[in-house]
Amino acid sequence: MKITLLTGKTFDIQAALNMDIKIIKSPKAKRLTLRIDAKERLPILTIPSRCSAKRAVEFVEMHRAWLEENLQKIPAIKHFENGEKISLMGKEYIINHCPQKRCGVMIEEDNIIVSGSKEFLHRRICDFIKKKAQEQLLKKSQTLANKIGCHVNHVSIKDTKSRWGSCSSLENINYNWRICMAPKYVINYLVAHEVSHLLHQDHSREFWQCVKKLCPDAAKGRLWLKNYGKELYRYE
User: Fold this and answer.
1) Domains of the chain by range and CATH?
2) What whole-number distance in Å separates Cα of residue 225 and Cα of residue 132?
3) Torsion of the alpha carbons at 22, 41, 156 and 143, rounded to the nearest 10
4) Which of these, 51, 48, 43, lies nearest to 14 by C-alpha position?
5) Number of helical H runs and strand E runs in the chain
6) Residues 120/80, Cβ–Cβ less than 8 Å
7) Does the pLDDT of residue 12 top 80, yes or no?
8) Does 35 score more than 70 pLDDT?
9) Which regions of 63-121 does DSSP assign to beta strands (E)?
10) DSSP 140-165
C-alpha cells in the first residue's frame, strides 16, 4: 500500500518491508498498532494520520520476529472431507459422501450424508451447519432468555473473524457458525453469555453471576474457547 507523506510524495510500505501486510491509515489512531488477522492470515498495521512512513517501517521491523512467530502458529485452512468425524451441537457424526444420492445434506443415524459432486462437499456441509445453528441456537437462546425474564428478538448466524457472539440493545443475538462444532458445554456457555447481555450490557459482577446461573459449567466452556477455539477457525 502506498501512503501520502507530509511532503506530498507517496511511499510504498509493503515494498519497503517486502511482506504482505494490510495497512490502515486512521485519523482516529493515536499510535502505531500491529495485530494479526487470523482468518486472512495477514498482519494489520494501523497508522495515525501524522505518522511518518519511516517510523511505520521501523515499527514493523522491530516486531517482525513476533509477526513471523505468530503467523506460523495460525492453523492451516481445513476443508470438510469424506470420512471425517465432526461434532455438531454436541454430538459426533461421520461425513459420508454419497454422490449418487439426491438428498443434498441430511443426518442419518451417526452419519451426515452429502450428495452431489465432491467439489461441493465442503460448501454444502458449511451451509448445513449454518442452518442447524440457526435452528438450534435460536431455541437455546429463547429458552435461557425466558429463565431470566428476557426476550430474544432475532438470532443471526455470522461468519465473523474473531468474535463468537454478540448481543445488541435491540435484543438481537449473533453467533459464529463454527461454535456448533464445539463441545456441548461450550455451546451452552456461549449462549448463556450472550443471553446474559440481554439483562446486563456489560461484563460486571452481576453479568458473570447471571452467566453462571444459566450455565454452571461457564468457566469450563470459557477456558475451552480460549485454548481451543482457534482450531475451529481452520474451517472457512
Assistant:
1) 2-73 (no CATH), 85-232 (3.30.2010.10)
2) 20
3) -130
4) 43
5) 7, 12
6) no
7) no
8) yes
9) 85-88, 91-97, 105-108, 111-114
10) HHHHHHHHTT----EEEEE--SS-SE
Here the cell at position 157 is: 448466524
pLDDT of 64 above 50: yes
Distance of alpha carbon 127 from alpha carbon 123, whole angstroms: 6
Average of per-residue pLDDT across 84-105: 95
Q: What is the mean pLDDT of residues 204-227?
A: 97
Q: How many Å separate Cα 109 from the centre of its chain?
A: 29
Q: How far is CA 213 from CA 80, 139, 187, 192, 227, in A?
A: 36, 18, 15, 9, 23
How far is the C-alpha of 152 from the C-alpha of 195, rounded, in Å? Answer: 8
Cα 123 versus chain centre, distance: 17
pLDDT at residue 75 greater than cutoff 80: no
- How far, in Å, CA of 102 to CA of 67, rounded? 47
Instruction: Note the pTM of the prediction, 2 decimals.
Output: 0.75
Q: 106-130, pLDDT tens digit by residue?
A: 999 999 999 999 999 999 999 999 9
